[in-house]
Automatic annotation (TrEMBL):
This is UDP-galactopyranose mutase. It comes from Roseateles rivi. Its cofactor is FAD. One of its GO terms (molecular function) is UDP-galactopyranose mutase activity. Belongs to the UDP-galactopyranose/dTDP-fucopyranose mutase family. The gene is glf. Residues 147-344 form the UDP-galactopyranose mutase C-terminal domain. It comes from the Bacteria. The keyword Glycoprotein does not apply. Its EC number is 5.4.99.9. Keywords: FAD, Flavoprotein, Isomerase.
Length: 366
């Protein structure tokens, strides 16, 4: 085929762009170096028949009706509100921190009305919130910071709280009530048949050709007239000419427990302190699947490996800006997604960005 668009990466960014463009009558070639579609959201049944997320848990949540309705074209949904507990000492406590967390941790009996005044007493006010440490201390004070955030951040990012931009910690709210949902978005659902099935439907269009186990570098010269939509790491596209942008990676230890119907009380348990791993997720909570056994995954953050998270620090943002200038000057290529835009996007944000990017291309390249 002679595609109008060559899209690199079959995750949310690439797949959404592919569908929008194909429905507008464009010929699309979508390639991914992995053996499968779906990017990090790919799911599959393990050897025991349990639907798992090989690249760690992906929980869909959004406040965007537009994004939810768009994805609803390709999947039915299962209502699911994610809940997370954090192990602090011998206790398992709700995170984000809420009234229950504070009362159980300190043996108190605060009412909802009393929690804000308690936090006001323990918080360490910061005039300027420049780092994640500023955000956390300004919100909950030193002890809660040390118990829930400091160690977890060190493991997750390989950095101290004081070395991370404020936006990382700002993602996690503090509540004065007993709301123990991890997210508070209007739409909280999981694809009823899994993410991979949703991606398969999204890419099932005569205008889309999909090639997996295909490296962009091996075919980019075969389609010189195609406009490229690139969703991989932006520094890799430019051969790391300014040096490598820092990304945080993960390794996953999957385990099946044949004689255990339920391993833990909630979908995810965080381990902010003593353990080498950051969290354990039990997939049956997420999917609602019935099975005599259960499958879990432990996550171990690491510096090397596939890029998962852009590392939000001012010096990294400055380096990204240099690559961004190259991207804006480049002809015939559009950069979309978490790695291509070096942004800590959630899935719904990536979908929204991809919809906007694809529509923009159709308006400028009719």
């Amino acid at each position: 085929m002679h595609p109008d668009y060559l899209i690199v990466g079959a995750g949310f960014a690439g797949s959404v762009c592919a569908r929008v463009l194909a429905e507008a009558g464009k010929a699309v070639l979508l390639v991914d170096k992995r053996r499968h579609i779906g990017g990090n959201a790919y799911d599959e049944r393990d050897a025991h028949g349990v639907l798992i997320h090989p690249y760690g848990p992906h929980i869909f949540h959004t406040n965007s009706k537009k994004v939810f309705e768009y994805l609803s074209r390709f999947t039915a949904w299962r209502f699911y509100e994610h809940r997370v507990l954090a192990q602090v000492g011998a206790q398992l406590l709700p995170i984000p921190i809420n009234r229950t967390t504070i009362n159980q941790l300190y043996g108190l009996n605060l009412s909802e009305d009393e929690v804000p005044s308690y936090l006001e007493k323990v918080r360490q006010p910061r005039e300027s919130l420049q780092t994640s440490e500023d955000v956390v201390l300004n919100s909950v004070g030193l002890d809660l910071c040390d118990k829930f955030f400091r160690g977890y951040t060190k493991k997750q990012w390989g950095l101290e709280l004081s070395q991370l931009s404020a936006g990382v910690a700002a993602r996690i709210p503090t509540r004065s009530n007993d709301d123990d949902r991890y997210f508070s978005d209007s739409f909280q659902f999981m694809p009823a048949e899994g993410y991979t099935a949703m991606f398969e439907r999204m890419l099932d269009h005569p205008g889309i050709a999909v090639r997996t186990s295909c490296d962009f570098k091996d075919i980019r010269d075969q389609h010189p007239r195609a406009h490229i939509i690139y969703t991989g790491p932006i520094d890799a596209y430019f051969d790391h000419c300014y040096g490598a942008l820092p990304y945080r990676s993960l390794s996953f230890a999957h385990e099946h427990l044949a004689d255990t119907a339920q391993f833990q009380a909630v979908g995810t348990v965080n381990f902010p302190n003593e353990h080498a791993y950051t969290r354990i997720t039990e997939f049956k909570h997420l999917t609602g699947q019935q099975h005599v056994g259960t499958s879990i995954v432990r996550e171990y953050p690491q510096a090397e490996g596939d890029p998962y998270y852009p590392v939000p620090r001012p010096e990294n943002e400055a380096l990204f800006k240099r690559y961004q200038a190259l991207a804006e000057a480049a002809q015939g290529v559009t950069f979309v997604g978490r790695l291509a835009q070096y942004r800590y996007y959630n899935m719904d944000q990536i979908v929204a960005t991809a919809l906007t990017a694809a529509q923009g291309l159709l308006e400028t390249q009719p």
